[in-house]
Design a protein that fits this description.
337 residues; six-stranded mixed beta sheet; five-stranded mixed beta sheet; 15% helix; binds copper (II) ion
Amino acid sequence: MSKHLFTRRQLIVSTIPALAAAPLAGLGVAGVAQGQTSGHGDHGEADAAGAGIGHGAMIGEAVPAVGGPNDLDVLLYPPEALPHAPGRVREYELVASEGEWEVFPGIHFPAWMYNGTVPGPIVRATEGDLLRVRFANASRHPHTIHFHGIHPASMDGVFELVGPGESFTYEFPAGPYGMHLYHCHVSPIKKHIQKGLYGALIIDPPRPRPSAQELVMVMNGYDTDGDGANNFYSVNGRAFYHAKYPIRVRRSQTVRIYLANLTELDLINSFHLHGDMFRLYRTGTTDVHEYTDTVMLCQGERCILEIDFANTGHFMFHAHQSEFTDLGWTGFFEVVD
Ligand code: CU
Ligand code: CU
């Protein structure tokens, strides 16, 4: 049976009957492919799935998610911020390739990747560093890297196509400080981004942010059956991953999340936190913040969140588009003393 055979609607619908008996078993690919349906109307089915999967039922080792507990650490935990030292060179190497990216057990997305992952690696520098990113294209299609932020037109990733087997070095002073991102900018752009060519770019302020437990979350989606709609959603690449493996944080220290939305095909995505509130710094470019528990981001938008957890325990975070939650964009913090 084809591994790309089912649609977004079938995935949601198929989870309902199985959930009644065993909350987690219904998410298996076999159950999905059998196309089980209940007798209810469309809205009833979606509501049932949301209530069953989205909240409470789905946490821990039994959750179907790809890989082991530390597989995505390199995409979750950013390298440390370095102190301000104008002119220091920060070097990164990104290689574009093609391959299968397992989004959900048994579901392999034919991805285009920077350094073999979706999203690509975290790039971090301090404002005033000279950021030097060597880009090599080991795929069969032309690609570029377009960074958000301030840089010369010649470093914008728009005019210089990097063909298969070619390379290009991007070099510019890092700035302004904030949470930024990068992505391929070759036409059709929608396809080149949707295939997985994007990642987080953190620029630290000259005066360092207070120390915190720092995390990066890149929100994305996958159209695994090619029908123009996403079938799965995630943070940092794998559906349900941090529901299976909650992110452990300490109550005593601020949790700082660098959040970016690289979802294609859906106009917006969002982050919602249970049981607490966060300071929201839009784009992270100023000290101005609001205090909320939900933030909505359009494509390419990003922000910095700071949480001071009041309580210990497991707290859910997920898209507040509940359908995205049901399709993989959900996780838990495990707050400990
Ligand atoms: Cu919720
Ligand atoms: Cu591209």
